[in-house]
Amino acid sequence: MGTVYAELTLRNSEDITLVNQGFLKPENIRTVTVTAIVDTGSYSLIIDDQTMQKLGLEKTGEKRIRIANGERIVCPVTTPVEINWKDRQSVMRVISVPGLPQTLLGLLPLEEMDLIVNPNKHELVGAHGDEIEYMAY
After folding, report:
1. Would 137 be classed as within a structural domain?
2. Which of 7, 35, 84, 134 has the most neighbouring CB atoms within 10 Å?
3. Which letter does DSSP use for residue 26 in this model?
């Protein structure tokens, strides 16, 4: 299928809360823009330890994960981050993998932002066109 990339803006969710409460100025929200590999084999957003530090995210727990070479490692789970792609966003805790060469955008944020991979064009697109559509049963 080929590699699909997405430019994401990541923002510290706790900083956003402090702005909304009037304790922090909007320009002080810790923000990082990354080019992520869209990885439908990952379930979350996976960042490296440097991105975790730049965003000021704190460790809230740990997850045992299997990396591409089959090795199992224990990695920190962080406080929430706001993930922005074009006009869509998702807020979730992320996994930080030390030394990760590139951010990975996994299934949970893709689902929440109603996005899919178009395999013919090798690009990220809205699952229901330009409008976000959520299913409720």
Report:
1. no
2. 84
3. G
Amino acid at 35: T
- Stated pTM of the model: 0.90
Note the pLDDT of residue 119: 86
Query: CATH no. for residue 37?
Result: 2.40.70.10
pLDDT in tens, 42-61: 989 999 999 999 999 999 99
Q: Which two tokens stand for residue 16?
A: 């956003």
Domain count of the fold of the chain: 1
Between the alpha carbon of residue 108 and those of residues 54, 89, 114, the distances in Å are 23, 12, 10
Q: Which amino acid is residue 123, in one-letter code?
A: E
Which residue type, as a one-letter code, is found at position 24? L
In a domain? residue 108 = yes
φ and ψ at residue 132, rounded to 5 degrees = -80, 125
For 100-130, the pLDDT digits (tens) are 999 999 999 999 999 999 988 889 998 887 7
CA 63 and chain centroid, separation:
16
- The set of residues, in sequence order, having a beta carbon less than 8 Å from that of 20 and lying 6+ positions away, is none
Q: Which domain holds residue 26?
A: 5-130
